[in-house]
Amino acid sequence: MFWGVVALLVLELVYIAMLATGGLAWLLNRLIPDTRLGWSKATSVVPGRIHLENFFLHNFAQGGGDWRIELDRAEVNVSLHALFLQRFETESLEVHGIKARIHSVSTEPEQDPARPQAEGAEKEEPGGWRIRLREVRVHDVHAFIWNQARLTGMQEVQGGLDVQPGKRIVLEDIRLRLGPGELFLMEDAIARVERGEASARLEARYRGTEGIDLIAGLTGGRLQVSATVPAVSSLQHLVPRFEGLSPEGGAGRVEVDLHVKDGRLAPGTVIRGQGEPFTLPVGPLRLHAPWNLLADVHTREDGEDRLGLKFTMGPVRMEGGKAPGQVLETPEVRLLMGAKSPRLGEALPDVHMSLSAARSNPVELRMLNGWLGPSFQVESGQAFVKASSRANPEDGGGEGHLNVDTQGFRARWSGARITGRLLLDVDAHKLAFNQERVTLHGSRMLLRGVAVHTEKDSERDWDGTLVFPEATLGLSSPPSFRGRFTGSFSNAAPLVALLTQQGAFPHFFSPLLRAENLQISGGVTLGKDGAVFDTLRAKAEGLEVRGQARSVNGATSALLLVKLGILSVGVEVVPGDTNIHLVLPERWYTRRTGEVLP
């Protein structure tokens, strides 16, 4: 009996000495593979009851991931008996001050330079030691870090930890309570957490040389959070493909209820948010709008879980540019996105997106006069704008359209009156902005029910289509437009009437030019002085025209080569006069324009 008591006393003294000198940490680190632990100070008065300061536990996965826990101070009830059974086991653990970090497994296993490895060892075999922490209660979590995300403000965490190096890691019945704190992503504060709670269970097993996948091991969990966002730009992290935009302002609130199963967002997940108006520069314009957000995860009929997101702006107000006082308003702009339910921490898979803008308020067409110059001036009319776009970024497919429709259009060109309806269809995928220009490549202009009235002619119900493979709207002062076009028209009558009105052709000559199914092409430049047309080509039944023309301050000049059947005529138009060249018109045209004829 006496010697038994002495043996226990000696064992206790050795145990206390190993705690105080770090000998126990050294021994455990030698015995437990893939794990390092240590402390700066450890004391024990009652056997098994340990007071630790600056304790850390660091576990390395063979696939390259790792996790680390750092404690300021802790009171631990350690089972001395379990140490003889190769188990570091606690009956309770009370922690004050903790920082936890998880680095997920990488797709390509790499040797972590910070991970110790025995010399010459190619593969560590799972050890027999086990770390089991029961009845863990944590107060004051400094930070929880998962890859590039960092969360502060956790007030209390409860649960248990079971680590079998080389075999599995289990987090048992984790429950946590969130208080005031912040959520950071890549060091940017994206939300201020007001309150929240969470629960989770993790059971991750090692997969041979691939290591351990902590995310896949998250078998179940739920996070409920109420938070504010300092600006709408915080939400761009939900849709990384829009990170190139630079919105300003738009502070708001979000309510988050995330459900997780097997490392992925699960049905029941709902995110709601709304915010104040924000400003988004769009080239020379500025968009102003409040916002609303709704996202959820649902199960389709085929059993696949899908994430759906709807981001709504409205009412939307767009202003700026070179037309002071002009404001474009639309009731709503809506972004819809669908994707497969994502694995936590990874990019959204199989993304489909659509963007739509409701029909805008009317915009006065007279604002275009600054680009058109004095030769062609809009007298009245309004335009309405709407937009739609859809895309599947992974496949590179999709389409987008910006549509402009007019009502009550009326304009004058050198004394002639033009009325009708214009529809502009802009290829949104090719639409580009900056402070100096707007690129409109691929745009189409449809002319419907056009009528031209001159002093001597009146043409009605004329239709045509212009396509602009290249088109650029200059926004600097003075504004300008440059484009290359092709087109098809029902006939040439309105164009002939306009040219006749301006003296380009004698009136008796115009009936010969009224051809059907007119096809045209060329280049156009519009500016403050007027319009310039170059490399003009027109072809119809029995008619071919090529040339160049200029309309400056209402006066027209042109060099044209007109072919009527087998007859060719050269036409030179100067302000107030027209010259017809019947002798060797092709040679005359080449000499005047420098254009080599085929």
Shape: elongated
- The count of strands amounts to 37
Question: In whole angstroms, how far apart are the ends?
Answer: 121 Å
Largest sheet: 6 strands, antiparallel, barrel
- State the helical fraction: under 10%
> What is the count of DSSP helices, taking H or I runs of 4+ residues?
6
- Percent range for β-strand residues: over 45%
| Spatial strand arrangement across the major sheet | 6-7-10-11-9-8
Average pLDDT works out at 80
Low-confidence stretches: 1-14, 106-126
Structural class: mainly beta
Radius of gyration: 38 Å
Q: What keyword list fits this structure?
A:
9% helix; 6-stranded antiparallel beta barrel; elongated; 598 residues; disordered N terminus
Molecular structure report:
- This protein is mostly beta strands.
- A 6-stranded antiparallel beta barrel has the order 6-7-10-11-9-8.
- The chain is elongated, with a radius of gyration of 38 Å.
Layout of helices and strands:
Elements: H1 2-21, H2 23-31, E1 35-38, E2 41-43, E3 49-60, E4 66-78, H3 80-83, E5 87-103, E6 130-146, E7 149-151, E8 154-164, E9 168-178, E10 181-185, E11 188-205, E12 218-229, E13 248-249, E14 252-261, E15 264-265, E16 270-282, E17 285-299, E18 305-313, E19 316-320, E20 327-330, E21 333-340, E22 352-357, E23 363-364, H4 369-372, E24 376-392, E25 397-413, E26 416-427, E27 432-433, E28 437-439, E29 443-453, E30 458-474, E31 480-491, H5 493-501, E32 516-527, E33 530-540, E34 543-552, E35 555-564, E36 567-574, E37 577-581, H6 585-593
Parallel strand pairs: 5-6
Antiparallel strand pairs: 1-3, 2-3, 3-4, 4-5, 6-7, 6-8, 7-10, 8-9, 9-11, 10-11, 11-12, 12-14, 13-16, 14-15, 14-16, 16-17, 17-18, 17-19, 18-21, 19-20, 21-22, 22-24, 23-24, 24-25, 25-26, 26-29, 27-28, 28-30, 29-30, 30-31, 31-32, 32-33, 33-34, 34-35, 35-36, 36-37
